[in-house]
């Protein structure tokens, strides 16, 4: 890391370029600029204690950020980063950065005069928005886990000349205000019109929670603003004879795309029509602005670019899934993308048909008991693989992995728990760790309490849980039993935590699927009672449940309860819309834990040595297919027509 030292007198010899809000920008040479924070030049003896504390804390944070960016050498196209640290009279004061030449403010592209004067097409603006989204995505995926915080037009500059294909270089500036989650450094800047309603609500308590989700929201606002020259909560909407403010519109999620209010919102004449956008992109914007979705709209922008067609009459680029220009012809028909059908599970060979035998008198005299409604399957019925499936594909090796919770998270040999999709790391594992709402929340569950960490690592502790009671995590929900025996539901979203007390259950076992739907099993001496989806169903059973697994097939909306019985077999009970659909005893599964099993399309799949065995619950028939990497300790998760397999040695494979 290089350091450039100045005296204050030497610094004054550098030509000033701009005087920003918190810093001076000075010209070092044709290719480099120097950014000096104004507080660094304030004399300590001229400040009161509060001002002195503010100065010290600000410069300490800025210095950590600059040093981190320098040491990481995080240079990348599309961003302006520090190249040298600057000290004035021996103390940190700012940094040197490369100078972007032949650029203009992004805000120019929101001005009708500029866009029309430069003959900028809406396709060129789309490509500009795409470049911004790609740069933001790269920063989010950087090992430092960067959060911009202030995703707005004032912090991005654009090359003045477009390339042959109409694309332009974009540059994110003010990197010293970014958050660096890997170093626990929070973003320290934001712009009100670009932060989501849940963040607006938090401003009142003096804290603004900024995250990758708020960055993606800001990107969507910025994209819509550039593409239409109108803020998504712009225009005029009156209530009780007074104009609603932009902030109130954002708070109550009333955008210009609102179906309910679109006739009441008056748009300014300079606004650009958005009728050329595809239905998927418009719905994507609506989901972000009004439905709380914090996914990136970048894939939808790319789809719009890929399918753009130029109208020979008006010159606009409209989406090609319209049968004609949707600006010239408001009644143009649109063909939406077909929704993908859920894939079927891997095929399982059915055993060869057996000759039908007449039941003997003993069978007639001894009909099957509850729990064995059809003949019990035996291992002799296992068949050879029906098709030549491709070999398992290694997705992640086990280097540095101590254990895997699921396909998306794992614990390192150093005790860190890492969520792969978001890159978030938990350093506070006292029990089981779960990542919820795309990694926005971390749950740390122990026998005594549950810690909930939000995107800014703000902690909420739930210490009223019943000791050694069941809990479940699914979707963006947590379910647990409190000390009084009441089931509690906690919902985690971009708006924060919400709580819902339900009712008391008798010794409940809890399970939840990825949609946050709950299954509750009450265990009595003579029966089991299941509660799910507003329904209740009972099955007779003596002797309690020592080990069980509760699995959900979300495609069919059914739940499978698997547990051991006194005969040494396993019993499978399937619950659906009409109550108990199947109730059958089968040969005991070889899996070391019932949690290693997977349930999909009416079958229970279990790992054995070198193969996966499928049991048809309706018929009891069994079949298998070879899979070289599995053994009874492997965990199976059926997804998208195949299996995610976590092996005993903590490798992750994809099969099928």
CATH class of the largest domain: Mainly Alpha
- Runs in which pLDDT lies below 50 for 5 or more consecutive residues are 202-206, 350-387
Helix content: 10-25%
The CATH superfamily name of the largest domain is Transferase(Phosphotransferase) domain 1
Give the distance, in angstroms, between the N- and C-terminal Cα atoms: 49 Å
- The structure class reads alpha+beta
Helix tally equals 10
Named CATH architecture of the largest domain: Orthogonal Bundle
Question: How would you sum up the major sheet?
Answer: 6 strands, mixed
Structurally, the number of domains stands at 4
Mean pLDDT, nearest integer?
A: 84
Strand segment tally = 43
Cα Rg: 30 Å
Enumerate the strands of the largest sheet in spatial order, edge to edge or round the barrel: 1-5-6-4-3-2
CATH topology of the largest domain: Transferase(Phosphotransferase), domain 1
Report the portion of residues in β strands: 25-35%
- Overall morphology: globular
Distinctive features:
656 residues; alpha+beta; Phosphorylase Kinase, domain 1; Transferase(Phosphotransferase), domain 1; 4 domains; six-stranded mixed beta sheet; four-stranded antiparallel beta sheet; 10 helices; 32% strand; globular
